[in-house]
Amino acid sequence: xxxxxxxxxxxxxxxxxxxxxxxxxxxxxxxxxxxxxxxxxxxxxxxxxxxxxxxxxxxxxxxxxxxxxxxxxxxxxxxxxxxxxxxxxxxxxxxxxxxxxxxxxxxxxxxxxxxxxxxxxxxxxxxxxxxxxxxxxxxxxxxxxxxxxxxxxxxxxxxxxxxxxxxxxxxxxxxxxxxxxxxxxxxxxxxxxxxxxxxxxxxxxxxxxxxxxxxxxxxxxxxxxxxxxxxxxxxxxxxxxxxxxxxxxxxxxxxxxxxxxxxxxxxxxxxxxxxxxxxxxxxxxxxxxxxxxxxxxxxxxxxxxxxxxxxxxxxxxxxxxxxxxxxxxxxxxxxxxxxxxxxxxxxxxxxxxxxxxxxxxxxxxxxxxxxxxxxxxxxxxxxxxxxxxxxxxxxxxxxxxxxxxxxxxxxxxxxxxxxxxxxxxxxxxxxxxxxxxxxxxxxxxxxxxxx
Length: 451
Hints:
The strands form nine sheets. Strands 16-17-18-19-23 form a five-stranded mixed sheet, with no helix packed on it. A four-stranded antiparallel sheet has the order 1-35-34-33, with no helix packed on it. The chain has a four-stranded antiparallel sheet with strand order 2-3-4-5, with no helix packed on it. It has one helix spanning about 5-20, and strands spanning about 60-65, 75, 80-85, 110-120, 125-135, 150-155, 155-160, 165-170, 175-180, 190, 190-195, 205, 210-215, 220-225, 230-240, 250, 255-260, 265-270, 275-280, 290-295, 295-300, 310-315, 320, 335, 350, 355, 360-365, 375-380, 390, 395-400, 405-410, 415-420, 430-435, 435-440, 445-450. Residues about 5-20 have low confidence and may be disordered. By secondary structure, the protein is mainly beta. The chain has a single domain (about 25-95, about 105-450), classed as YVTN repeat-like/Quinoprotein amine dehydrogenase (Methylamine Dehydrogenase, Chain H, 7 Propeller), CATH 2.130.10.10.
C-alpha cells in the first residue's frame, strides 16, 4: 500500500469516526410536546440548581419571540423549534389565574402564523417561516393564544399545526414540503358554542407518520399522514365533543397503538390502520391532558364536570372499558380515582411514582402500579399553573403562571428544593436537553444552563 493510499484511508476513517461520534440519539431528543412521547423526562441532563432570568444567573441566552404562543419548544440536535402568532392588533395580553370566564377575545386583525428555528447554543434565530396569513378563523380564550400546538420533529422534517390555519411540514432548512387545510376546526365549549377557545392538540411523529387528533364541534377525527409527502394514510371519525388533548403512542407487545384522551370517546387505535381497539366514556368534559405511558399501563386524567378521573388502563385493553357508576376497576382498568384529575396538566411517570399537578399547584404523588396516594402538597405560592411538570436527575420542575419554577425532590417524601425566577408570565411546558432547560415565556425563549 502506498503512503498516499494509507493517508487517504486514515483520513476517511477519522471522518467516519468523527461523524459517528456526533450522531444524534433520537431517544434523547425533546422531539414533541413534553419530549420523548410526552414522557417529560430526560435524565443525565446536568441542569443547574439555581438560575434567575432577571440577574442573568445561569442564563445562557434570552431570545425575543414575536407575537404570542403557548406552544412549547422542541429540540433536535442543535435546533430548537417554536411557533407563534403575530397579530396586527393582538399584543399578547394574557389573563392568568383561576376564574370562570368562558368568553373569547374579540380580535379580528390579520395575523401571521410563524415557525422559528433557533440555535440551541447561541439563541440566534436561524430561520423563520410564515405558514399562514389572515384573520383567525377561531377566537381565543383570554388565557389562550392562536399558536397553542407544539411542533414535532424527527430530525429530518418539522411539522407545525395551527388548527384552522392548517398543518404544515418543513425540512430542517425551513423549506415548505406540504400543507393541509382542514377548514374551520371549531374548538368551542360544547355547552356554549359562542365560547371559542382556539385549537390546542399537538401533532406527533412516529415511524415517519404524522398523527393528529382533532376533537371539535363537528366532524371530529384522528388521522395519519406520510411525513415526506403529506399523503393521507387513514382518517378515522370520532364521536366526540371539542377537546384540547395531544395523542400519544404505546405498545401492546409489538403492536403500535395510539392513545387519545377524551370525554365521550377516550380510547386506543391501531397505528397502522386507524381502527379503534378500545374505547370508554366518562371524565372531565373539557379534556386537555395528554395520555402518558408507563411500563404496564397507559394513564389518563381530566377534569371539569361531574367527575375528574385518573385512570390506569392495561395495554392489552379491547372493547368498551367504561366504568359503571361508582366503579374503580374492571377487566382492563387496573385502578381509577374518580376525583382528583388535573384540568390542565399532563401527569408525570418518574420511577415507580405517578405525579399529578393541579391547576392550583397541588402536587399529588401516587404509587403508579396500585394507585395508592403517597402525598398531596401545594407547591409554591402561585395561584395558577398551566405548565405540566417535567423531570431530570431526581428533580421535578413545576412552573407557575407567574414564571416561578419550583424544584421538587422526586420520590415518596415531598421536599421543595429550590425556586427560580423567569421574570415573565409562563404558560407552556419547558423542554430539556443535555445541559439545558428551555422555557417559553410570554415574550421570550430562555435557555438555562450551568455557566
